[in-house]
Amino acid sequence: MERVSVLCLSLLFCSLSGAELQDNEIIEQREVSPESVNVPEPQPCPSDLHAVLREMSVKLAKYEVKLEHLQTLNQEQNAKLAKNEFKIEQLQTLNQEQAAKLKQLEKQSSHMDSQQQVGQVAFSASLLASGSGHTGPFNTHTTLVFRGVVSNIGNAYNPHTGIFTAPVRGAYHFEFYIFAQGGSSGSTRVGLEKNGEHVFNAQEIQSTGWGSASNGVTLLLEAGDVVFLRLWANFIIYDDSNHYSTFSGHLLFPM
């Protein structure tokens, strides 16, 4: 009986002690605010992490494929660009060659036009344009001015000075005919001069009647060289409307 009483008392004490502990826990929970308690965040499970990693791996693989595709496309574009640049260089080289050929053709054409133009050089003139009479004698060599111009193609002969000026380098042919009355002073002598240097003469000396002489020459002239006729000192020359005394010349071919 005593043992039963002791057991009952023990059970009663245990129940009271448990109740007191529960009351104390409730009080402590009420006193502590939720803000002051650091509640740990829920951690993902290992299975969730594996799923995220797998998804990221798939996306990364896709990005790598796209990157490889872009790199391949870039290489193709660079190859096309290099081909286009090479073609452009070829076209530029061809254009330069064509421009050089065109310039050469223009130069040749200009040269041919120039030759055709300067190839048309010829003149012929008589000593007097009108009237009649002797010229001379003079006490010095005197340049004869042939004023009766019949033709002056290329205007290389000057009828005011009697001087022919070569427009281009080339071979030129000249002829001159002189006429005078014979007698005590009836002698005629004319010389052809190149740049002031004597080349050929034509001369006739007789005591009575009329006398004539002529000569001709082919000269290699540089552009700007001059040719003219001089009446020698103490000689005479005659001309009238029949044009006995003449001076002519023309370009055979340029050189």
General description of the model:
Among the domains are: 75-118; 122-254, Jelly Rolls (Sandwich), CATH 2.60.120. The chain is 40% helix and 31% strand. The protein has helices at 2-31, 46-118, and strands spanning 122-126, 133-135, 142-143, 148-153, 157-158, 163-165, 170-181, 187-194, 197-205, 210-221, 226-231, 237-239, 246-254. The strands form three sheets. Strands 3, 5, 6, 8, 9 and 11 form a six-stranded antiparallel β-sheet that branches. Strands 4-1-13-7-10 form a five-stranded antiparallel β-sheet, with no helix packed on it. Strands 2-12 form a two-stranded antiparallel sheet. A hairpin with a 2-residue loop joins strand 8 (187-194) and strand 9. It starts with a helix and ends with a strand.
Shape: rod-shaped
CATH architecture classification of one domain: Sandwich
Number of strands: 13
Radius of gyration from CA coordinates: 63 Å
- Elements, N to C (H/E): HHEEEEEEEEEEEEE
What is the CATH topology assignment of one domain?
Jelly Rolls
Distance between the termini: 164 Å
| Mean pLDDT rating | 82
Question: What percent of the residues sit in helical stretches (DSSP H or I)?
Answer: 40-55%
Unreliable stretches, pLDDT < 50, 5 or more residues? 2-22
CATH class of one domain: Mainly Beta
Q: Main sheet, how many strands, which sense, barrel? A: 6 strands, antiparallel
Number of helices: 2
Main location: secreted
Protein name: C1q domain-containing protein
Pfam families: C1q (PF00386)
Subcellular location: Secreted
